[in-house]
Specification:
Elements lengths: L3 E3 L5 E3 L8 E6 L4 H9 L9 E3 L5 E3 L5 E3 L6 E2 L2 E2 L5 E6 L16 H18 L8 E3 H4 L12 H7 L12 E3 L3 E5 L8 E6 L3 E2 L1 E10 L2 E7 L11 E3 L3 E3 L2
Parallel strand pairs: 1-5, 3-9, 3-10, 4-9
Antiparallel strand pairs: 2-6, 4-5, 7-8, 11-14, 11-18, 12-13, 15-16, 16-17
The protein binds zinc ion (ZN).
Zinc ion (ZN) binds next to loops.
C-alpha cells in the first residue's frame, strides 16, 4: 500500500457515459518532478495526467480516475481514437529529452516499484487484464508523434505484477465500402496512390488530422505489411472497420 499525495489539476473533463476504462497509458515527463507537477496543474498547459511518480517513488494524484485527464492527445488503439476517454494516465519523472540533458535518464527502482504497485492496483480495482493490450506506452498509442516513456521496460513491469507480457495480436482494420481511394495526403485533393477493396485487411500506422469529411478530420496512415499489396497512403477513418 502506497501513500498517494493529492495534487489536484483542473486540466480534465468528465468521462462520457458508457465509456469503459480499460487501458493504462504510461508516460515520461521530460523534466523534473516539481517542474512537471507545476506544468500539469497549470491551466495554461492544457495537459494533465491521473498520476505522477517521482524518482524517489512518491505518487501524486492530479485527476480523479472518474474524469478524463488530458494525457494522450491524438491517439488510437485497437479501433478506438481519443484514448483519454478510455484510459488512466501515469507519468514517470524522467529527464530524457529535456533541455540540456544528454543520453538516457534511467528510471529508479523505487519509481518502477511504485509504478508496478499502482498499475497492479488499478487493474485489480477496475478489473483490467494485466497484459500488453491494456497496459501500453504513450508511444504505442501515438506512434511517430510520441516516444515516451523511452527506456521503460513495460514487459518487465507487467511480469512484475503477474501479468502476461507477450505481444498481443496485430491490430487489424478492414475496408468497409466497395472500394476506396488511398491518397498521398490526408485530403481529397491529394493524388490517388492506389485503391483498397471491400474486406481488404489494413494495418494502421498512425491516425492524423486532415480534411474534415464524414464528421471528423481524422485520417489513417497505413503501415506497409507483406506482401505489399498497396502503397502507403491515407484513407478516411470512417471508411474502415476495426476487427480481428
Ligand atoms: Zn506522454
Amino acid at each position: 500500500m502506497y501513500n498517494i499525495i493529492p495534487a489536484p489539476s483542473n486540466n480534465h473533463e468528465p468521462r462520457l457515459p458508457g465509456d469503459p476504462i480499460d487501458l493504462i497509458v504510461l508516460h515520461a515527463t521530460v523534466g523534473s518532478y516539481q517542474g512537471s507537477l507545476d506544468w500539469l496543474r497549470n491551466p495554461a498547459s492544457e495537459v494533465s495526467t491521473h498520476y505522477l511518480i517521482s524518482k524517489d517513488g512518491r505518487i501524486a494524484q492530479l485527476v480523479d480516475e472518474r474524469n478524463q485527464a488530458w494525457h494522450a492527445g491524438t491517439s488510437f488503439w485497437r479501433g478506438r481514437t481519443s484514448i483519454n476517454r478510455y484510459s488512466i494516465g501515469i507519468e514517470l519523472e524522467n529527464l530524457t529529452g529535456s533541455r540540456g540533458f544528454v543520453g538516457q535518464d534511467p528510471y529508479t527502482q523505487a519509481q518502477v516499484s511504485s509504478a508496478a504497485w499502482l498499475v497492479g492496483d488499478i487493474c485489480a480495482r477496475r478489473n483490467i487484464p494485466r497484459d500488453r493490450q491494456h497496459i501500453v506506452s504513450h508511444a504505442e498509442i501515438a506512434p511517430r508523434r510520441k516516444s515516451d516513456p523511452k527506456g521503460l521496460d513495460i514487459n518487465a513491469l507487467v511480469q512484475q505484477i503477474g501479468g502476461y507480457s507477450g505481444s498481443v495480436e496485430e491490430d487489424v482494420w478492414y475496408v468497409v465500402p466497395q472500394r476506396v481511394n488511398i491518397r498521398q495526403a490526408p485530403n481529397t485533393d491529394a493524388p490517388v496512390a492506389s485503391q483498397a477493396y471491400r474486406g481488404q485487411k489494413l494495418y494502421v500506422d498512425a491516425i492524423v488530422h486532415g480534411e474534415r469529411l464524414m464528421g471528423s478530420d481524422l485520417w489513417v496512415h497505413m503501415k506497409r505489411m507483406p506482401p505489399y499489396q498497396f502503397d502507403l497512403g491515407f484513407i478516411k477513418l470512417e471508411l474502415l472497420r476495426h476487427g480481428n
